[in-house]
Amino acid sequence: MLTGTYSIKGVPTANLPSVVAGFRSEGATVTTIPQDDGNWTVIAVYPETVASPETRGAEKHT
Amino acid sequence: MILSKTKINSIYILLIIGLSSVFSGCASHFTSAPMADGHLTDSLVKTYSEISLDSIYAQGNKGQAERNIEINKLLTLSEHNYQEFRNKFYAGNAETQLGFDWISLGLSTAGALSTGGAAPILSGVSAAVQGAQGKFNSRFFLEKTTETLVNGMDTLRATKKQLIIAKMANLDINEYSTEEGVRDVLDYHAAGSLVSALVLVAAESGQAKQTAETELKVTEDELAGIRNTTFTDTKEGQLLQKFRMPDGVNIDSKNEARIRDWMDRNGLKDQSPTIFMTGDPRFDRKRKKAVHDLNLTNN
Predict the structure, then answer these.
(1) Residue B265 and residue B48: Cα distance in Å, rounded?
(2) Does the keyword Membrane apply (chain B) (predicted)?
(3) Is residue B76 a contact partner of residue B36, using CB atoms and an 8 Å limit?
């Protein structure tokens, strides 16, 4: 399971839809930021993993 | 055959005169010895089979130019014999004549070698060659490894020759004596043996394996940690993207599963498929492997 923040700089406009769709399919929330050179920076934030109650319980006993 | 000192000196004078057109051996100026023609090398072989190392030293130790002339002549002899051996080896006729015949180099006079520093080198190499001889008779071996071994010998000799040339050009007689030069030529000559080539090939393959393993480990560690990268448009990336999203926007779940499975099995379990496909040249090797493994080359 992916977690944390990933980013790709310099994404051409033509490739932007597939890059965004790719990150979204992986469960990320995607933000696109235009660059001065006409390309895009794509930031993908994946949700942090939330430990299940069973796991948390096990952690307390170790 | 023992010649009188006068006769030896006469031969030397003739040789030096005869060689003056081949070697530009004036003063300390040095040029590498070219391949000599058959007549010259025949003459050199004949002459050196009759002259001891002591007399070579006596000539060469007069000065840098004389030293360079002596070393040049020996280099020429070595090159001549190496080329002959090389040709025989390529032709598959080297089973009974591994490496060089030291006598042909003209430095095998027992008395001369027994007093010189080259004796241990010579005996060691000879023993190694003789010991290995039986192992090289296989036709398979000759056919499959000729190129590799010749390349190994060429590489070793080129490296050693460069060193000799540098020493001849830059060191005076006090810094680089004729004795040392002769030892270097013997070492250079010994590099033209199959034993030397095998040692080099074995060492290089071992080193290459270790380097590859180290690179692989570093690369996988790095790849797993890449979070911020720059878009890289590669042929392999496009093939993978097309496989993942045939229409450019919607994911093909079946193909997506295959890509993720491949990434799991190739050290990229915790990496984003999008990053892997579109980012960073460091993924190049992995992308190529993925395209190959997933058989996407014809898509």
Answers:
(1) 65
(2) yes
(3) yes
CB A10 to CB B230 under 8 A?
A: yes
Give the residues across from B26 on adjacent strands: none
Residue B28 pLDDT more than 50? Answer: no
Partner residues linked to A31 by β-bridges? A43
And the tokens for B111?
Answer: 């008395």
**Is the distance from CB of B15 to CB of B45 less than 8 angstroms?**
no
**B241: nearest CA partner in chain A:** A18
The model carries a pTM of 0.39
- Tell me the ipTM for this assembly: 0.79
> Residue B281 carries which DSSP code?
G
Under a CB-based contact definition with an 8 Å cutoff, are residues A42 and A15 in contact? Answer: no
> In angstroms, rounded to a whole number, what is the distance separating the alpha carbons of residues B42 and B49?
11
Look at residue B92 in the predicted model and tell me its pLDDT: 59
Question: Between chains, do B228 and A7 touch, taking CB under 8 Å as contact?
Answer: yes
> Which helix (DSSP H) or strand (DSSP E) does residue A5 occupy?
strand A4-11
Q: Which three-class secondary structure state does DSSP give residue B157?
A: helix
